[in-house]
Amino acid sequence: MVNFDIAYLYIPISIIVAIVYLLIDKEPRTRHRVIGVFLLSFLVISIGISSLIGFVGHIFFADQIAADIGWAAGSPFQREVGFANLAIGVLGITCIWLRGNYWIATVIATTIFLWGAAYGHIMDIIVHGNYAPGNAGGVLYDDILVPLITIVLLAAYVRTAKKVEKGM
After folding, report:
1. Pair 54, 78: CB distance under 8 Å
2. Rounded to 5 degrees, what angle do the CA atoms 34, 6, 4 make?
3. Coil, strand or helix: which one is 43?
4. Which of 11, 4, 2, 16 is closest to 114 using CA atoms?
5. What whole-number distance in Å separates Cα of residue 161 and Cα of residue 168?
6. Each residue's pLDDT tens digit in the chain (168 positions)?
7. Fewer Cβ neighbours under 10 Å: the N or C end of the chain?
8. CA 107 from chain center: how many Å?
């Protein structure tokens, strides 16, 4: 059986979905629109869907996920992380309907959670030499890159929105 880390797919899928959407969409491809489509794709897929999958894993397959991370099974941390994933997943998915400052709040909450998780993974690597796939694999990269990408996209989106409002 091949143990594939799905975390490696979220960023590429977010990019592919945004590109396909822009290719079939009839709206003008302004800089602001393109950035917005990429941002929404990351909010929904790399944050929303990935966090909902994390919720399912941490709640319903807790022992398997703990083993993949290199941690002992049966810890209540699983439930806490699972429900934090649920909250962030709901934030990401509901970005489809809720815009503006909601996107900012979603990026802030996600960044705090994921960079905090990344810190925990890195410390576990340094202190305990834990290179388990669920600790040092795709999840660690996503924990660092997804917030970074969404912050950059959000900043560009806000900046281009101001230019659109000014008629530039």
Report:
1. no
2. 145
3. helix
4. 11
5. 10
6. 345 688 899 999 999 999 999 999 999 999 999 999 999 999 999 999 999 999 999 999 999 999 999 989 998 889 999 999 999 999 999 999 999 999 999 999 999 999 999 999 999 999 999 999 999 999 999 999 999 999 999 999 999 998 877 766
7. N
8. 9
Q: What is the phi/psi pair of residue 129, to 5°?
A: 65, 30
Query: H helices of the chain, where?
Result: 10-24, 31-41, 50-60, 62-69, 77-94, 101-128, 133-136, 138-166
To the nearest 10°, the Cα dihedral for 132, 114, 80, 45?
Answer: -100
Residue 158, CA distances (Å) to 5, 21, 42, 89, 152 in order: 33, 21, 16, 23, 10
Query: How far is the CA of 114 from the CAs of 47, 86, 164, in angstroms?
Result: 10, 13, 32
Question: How many angstroms separate the Cα of 125 from the Cα of each of 2, 97, 118, 119?
Answer: 24, 39, 11, 10
> Which structure tokens are listed for 39?
């941002």
Cβ–Cβ contacts within 10 Å for residue 75, how many? 13
